[in-house]
């Protein structure tokens, strides 16, 4: 596990290049924020975490026996299973706690999963991130509630 990288992973580079091409500027691995987010967009008060499906237990559910059940993109090894279950569970709990702390500080969190960056889904995922960032910016700067209000009024008139 010592050779597992935490920075500049392939999924992270895909997200970084995609956001840069779309005009978003960011900082990397800000140590002042809980969890050291992979990307920090201060203008949007948003942190982006690019998580590997295995290490962070993507779509893994807990069974009745307090064991983790495999998902399509996260297969828990059969050997030394208790160790891996405990490790993945700790990572999942830590992720939730870090996002809670960021929310208390007024930051938005976006989690991008490794499996959503496969070639077939990559552009859709990056467009979705860009849409979410623009939505956050509009909402934080007071432009979005007026748009929602106008839409609600138009819907009520019909």
């Amino acid at each position: 596990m010592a050779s597992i990288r935490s920075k500049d992973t392939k999924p992270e580079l895909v997200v970084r290049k995609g956001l840069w091409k779309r005009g978003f500027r960011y900082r990397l691995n800000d140590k002042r924020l809980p969890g050291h987010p992979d990307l920090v967009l201060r203008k949007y008060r948003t942190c982006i975490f690019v998580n590997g499906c295995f290490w962070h237990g993507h779509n893994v559910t807990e069974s009745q026996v307090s064991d983790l059940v495999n998902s399509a993109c996260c297969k828990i090894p059969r050997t030394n299973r208790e160790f891996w279950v405990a490790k993945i569970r700790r990572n999942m709990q830590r992720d939730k706690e870090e996002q809670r702390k960021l929310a208390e500080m007024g930051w938005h969190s976006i989690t991008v999963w490794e499996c959503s960056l496969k070639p077939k889904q990559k552009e859709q995922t990056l467009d979705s991130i860009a849409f979410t960032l623009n939505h956050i910016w509009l909402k934080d700067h007071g432009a979005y509630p007026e748009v929602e209000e106008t839409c609600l009024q138009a819907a009520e008139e019909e």
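The chain is about 45% helix and 15% strand. The chain has one domain: 10-157.
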